[in-house]
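Running this now, will post back.
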Amino acid sequence: MLPVMFKTGNAVILRGGSEAIHSNLAIAEAMNVPGLPPNSITVVPTTDRAAIDELLKLDELINLCIPRGGEGLIRAVAEKSRIPVIKHYRASAMCTWIATPTSRWQRRLSSMPSASAPVSATPSRRC
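Update: finished.
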């Protein structure tokens, strides 16, 4: 799904819980290839669920949210979101946001608190 988004000029914001943060960082690192626009993929640097609430308020910057996780997470995202949501109730645990890359949302994401758990790797293109 990620390469298709890049071909259409979209960007991806990944925010995962403690079980997904390392996978998200690996995805971002793997997708950091020459030819992709800067900030095409961003990992939110925290596993705190409060970050989800903040992302859901960015309806002027983010075009689509695809929550992946437990039924409770998906229902909470669907209820709180100002952004269109593609939802289902069976999946792995992560949220994906699709946006046109701008320095403005990069600044908003970089102001979120860092993950409390140590993260062993950092993506090259991180907010």
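The domain at 2-110 is CATH 3.40.605.10 (Aldehyde Dehydrogenase; Chain A, domain 1). More later if anyone needs it.
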